[in-house]
């Protein structure tokens, strides 16, 4: 069979294919796993859309719901998607502000992957008549990706979307 070999990061995975996977109900970055990027000679985006993200208001404990968008340009590692799903699920009982959640997610993925570029955008449903959509990004310092991050930040909301589904 052709494709990724066991030595190309598969041997380190503990969650994918494991029928006994436990879902964590408290925030845990330790669940994240990565595999080798087999295409480090090329820039490409990896984008995840998680329409079922939940966390809790740190004061009231009320649930907050969001679609979480994670886009990154990998360097040597890519995140394994099942571990990312379990990691995002671990926010279910985590009490934090929306802005904190997106920055925590980005920081944890930077620590795991050391990506060339990454951005995280949380599009939260309204509560109390207002929605909050925090967006953060990072480009590897001293590279063109740092410049890309600055440019994307400066131009992030030039063309705001029409929101009619909330």
Task: Determine the structural class based on helices, strands and strand pairing.
Answer: alpha+beta
Output the helix-strand order.
EEEEHHEEH
Number of contiguous helices: 3
Mean pLDDT: 89
Q: Which radius of gyration do the C-alpha atoms yield?
A: 17 Å
Q: How many β strands by DSSP?
A: 6
Query: What strand order characterises the main sheet?
Result: 2-3-5-6
Overall 3D shape: flat
The main pleated sheet reads as: 4 strands, antiparallel
N-C termini distance: 46 Å
- Low-pLDDT segments, ≥5 res: none
User: Percent of residues in beta strands?
Assistant: 15-25%
The amount of helix comes to 10-25%
GO biological process, one term: tRNA queuosine(34) biosynthetic process
Function: Catalyzes the NADPH-dependent reduction of 7-cyano-7-deazaguanine (preQ0) to 7-aminomethyl-7-deazaguanine (preQ1).
GO molecular function: preQ1 synthase activity
InterPro entries: GTP-CH-I_C/QueF, NADPH_dep_7-cyano-7-deazaG_red, QueF, QueF_type1
């Amino acid at each position: 069979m052709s494709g990724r070999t066991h030595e190309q990061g598969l041997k380190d995975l503990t969650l994918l294919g494991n029928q006994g996977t436990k879902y964590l109900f408290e925030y845990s970055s330790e669940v994240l796993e990565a595999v080798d990027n087999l295409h480090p000679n090329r820039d490409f985006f990896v984008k995840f859309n998680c329409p079922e993200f939940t966390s809790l208001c740190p004061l009231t404990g009320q649930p907050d719901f969001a679609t979480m968008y994670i886009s990154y340009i990998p360097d040597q590692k890519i995140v394994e998607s099942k571990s990312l799903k379990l990691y995002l699920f671990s926010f279910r009982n985590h009490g934090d502000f929306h802005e904190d959640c997106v920055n925590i997610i980005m920081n944890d993925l930077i620590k795991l992957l050391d990506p060339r570029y990454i951005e995280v955008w949380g599009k939260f449903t309204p509560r109390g008549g207002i929605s909050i959509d925090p967006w953060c990004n990072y480009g590897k310092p001293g590279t063109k990706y740092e410049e890309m991050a600055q440019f994307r930040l400066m131009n992030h909301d030039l063309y705001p979307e029409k929101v009619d589904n909330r």
